[in-house]
Amino acid sequence: MTRDLTIAEVRLTPILVADAPLLNTQGVHQPYTPRLIVEVVTADGITGFGETYGDTKYLELARPLAERLPGRSVMDVNGLFSLDLAVDEDRIRGAVDAGGLRGVQSADKLRLSVLSAFEVACLDAQGRALGLPVHALLGGRVRDVVEYSAYLFYKWAGHPEGVPAEPDDWGAALDPAGVVAQARQFKERYGFTSFKLKGGVFPPEEEIAAVRALAEAFPGHPLRLDPNGAWSVETSLKVAKELGDVLEYLEDPTLGTPAMAEVSAGTDVPLATNMCVTTFGEIKEAFTEDAVQVVLSDHHYWGGLRNTRHLAAICDVFGVGVSMHSNTHLGISLAAMTQVASTVPNLHHACDSHYPWQSEDVLTERLAFTDGRVAVSDAPGLGVELDRDELARLHRRWAEDDGTMRERDDAAAMRVAEPEWRTPVMPRW
Ligand SMILES: O=C([O-])C(=O)C[C@H](O)[C@@H](O)C(=O)[O-]
Ligand SMILES: [Mg+2]
């Protein structure tokens, strides 16, 4: 049957999703985080889904882009990326946001972070129209499950008193015993066998003790520590020395490629990054200087699933490992991550995912982790369906918000509990 794959309509739905009080070096997660759900509808009624960041600066780019798509084909993904998208430079300059955890802010990265959701939606629509999974459109899967690591966070039991929030049942984790208890819950609930601890929250000695406690509780399991660049070169080398025998890799111990290269030269512990290599332009220096041994790709800001494969191919050429970074995200993104990860031959490390922290989703059926893995769907497109009632409910929450939750700002969320808190000057230790 011939299909009309012309785009007839694009729907953008900003939402606020519940988030747990997870601590990182900048502060704490807000009770609600903005995400944007993109739907691309073809002339004969096929709808493809995509998901990305939902802060205002992303919406400001997504809206005019959505208006330009009707009349184009969902097959024309290359054309999508050649569309001119004007970025307001003020949105990037000096912006204080969770982007501080994801490396440089640039107009191109902002543009790619928006385009990626449209790319995923177009690939989803293509797959649905052709009766093929997205992985088939990317050349086919080379594995039938994708492994994820448990993403451990220091956290409070709940958001600050008096702040509207959804409760969570994970409890507090503020010391080594709490971190190990959280890891046990991750293992029991989802079967994860590798663990990443988000660090940069407490002085390094405390985080070293937490990783040691994990190593004792889970002997032989791959462990990672990620302080988001909160340490000096000296501190990074000290931590690498102390934990070298148990770490699979150390993630962004310090900020910037030159400092990462210095750390790398002084330790055998592999260094991973989602901060100093976050764009194609940053690859040359980092790889030439041997600053990183693993790049954590993120299809949102690298510009989609095809660019993720492109990045993986470059990493392969240079003998650099590749895995995946994650922020707060829902099931559409997890499905997209799983589809593309299934096609990358040189993906040898379990990927990160925040998904277990998300109690809410816009899917009719949540994706499941079994033995820490997500099965690769062979259903058409991404293989997920939208729960429109839930989408509407989460959109209402966004519409009714007075604006405070619409921009993710972990430092501002921290100030609710600690009024003196400011985005820390790096390196903190
Ligand atoms: O470096 C990383 O892995 C991240 O930036 C992941 C997330 O942003 C995480 O740190 C967070 O959301 O607090
Ligand atoms: Mg990281």
TrEMBL record:
Keywords: Lyase, Magnesium, Metal-binding. The lineage of its organism: Bacteria, Bacillati, Actinomycetota, Actinomycetes, Kitasatosporales. It catalyses: D-glucarate = 5-dehydro-4-deoxy-D-glucarate + H2O. Residues 176-270 form the Mandelate racemase/muconate lactonizing enzyme C-terminal domain. InterPro entries: DgoD-like, Enolase-like_C_sf, Enolase-like_N, Enolase_C-like, GlucD-like, Mandelate_racemase_C, Mandelate_racemase_N_dom. The active site is at 198 (proton acceptor), 325 (proton acceptor). One of its GO terms (molecular function) is glucarate dehydratase activity. Its EC number is 4.2.1.40. Pathway: Carbohydrate acid metabolism; D-glucarate degradation; 2,5-dioxopentanoate from D-glucarate: step 1/2. It comes from the Bacteria. Its cofactor is Mg(2+). Belongs to the mandelate racemase/muconate lactonizing enzyme family. GlucD subfamily. It is an enzyme of class 4 (lyase). This is glucarate dehydratase.
